Amino acid sequence: MDEQQFDQNIDQQEQAPRRRLGRGLSALLGNNNTGENQFSDGGQQAPQSTDEIHVDLIERNPFQPRKEFAADGLRELSESIQKQGVLQPLIVRPFEDRYQLIAGERRLLAAKQAGRETIPCRVIEADDQTVCEIAIDENLKRRDLSVLEKAEAFQDYITRFNCPLEELANRLSIDRSTVSNMIRLLGLSEEAKIALREEKISAGHARAILSLDEPGQKAMCQQIQKESLSVRATEKVVKTIQAGDNPNVVPFPGQESSAPQRSNHIDSIEQQLCEQFGTKVVIKLKTADSGQVMIPFATNDDFERILQTLRRVA
Prior knowledge:
Oligomer: single chain
Radius of gyration: 22 Å
Number of helices: 14
CATH topology of the largest domain: Arc Repressor Mutant, subunit A
Strand order of the largest sheet: 1-5-3-4-2
């Protein structure tokens, strides 16, 4: 799937009516609509059954995929709150002797910025998995949520709740390959991740350079920016690098001049393994008949989940 098709797939899924999660926000709140308008930051009136809760008693959602909020947008919302108040209640759940946010972090931040001491909240009961699902589902509608933030949210859910990738994709009504392609981006080098976050390269570029080692990704990120390479052109350069005969690419440490050409079959197997293990899997060829299959892990829980998957397929 190329970059244009990938982006169109995401756009279609975001624009089309999607099956809500089994225990999604609208189900918890006891209404039959999607809840997309009722709990957006728009101008709908808050339900009457709300409580005014002090902002200092509300903790952020630990499963929130969004790491940053645009300063301009927060300032505009803060100014609106100063004039009209908070028109949408936050959704929270009891947490120890305080409350934990489920939906509405942007409104909470803007209310604090506006100097509000209390904010209207709807208090519901929800377990960790439900809160995590809601956080992912609600944020998938946000176009300013980066692909890496989405990928981190997917991977965290899979690891935390020992959930197969296919099950998560079904619960989100997203194609499995879309979820898998996003998660694979977590295997990028830190420098490539920074370039992706800063939009110096696209998600399509990032997927194209995944098969390279860290120095290779660094070199390709620089070449993509310097020469304004398209995704297709990047894919061709990467294949040439792997074949070891591109005179236009500056050699980088670790590049093997005799590296065998990767076939579409190897790429397909690598993709299937990524989907099966719910994490990045890399196949590195040394010769036409030898190589390595590498499955990296970030935490002990991640390691145990991979081991369980290996035992099931053994």
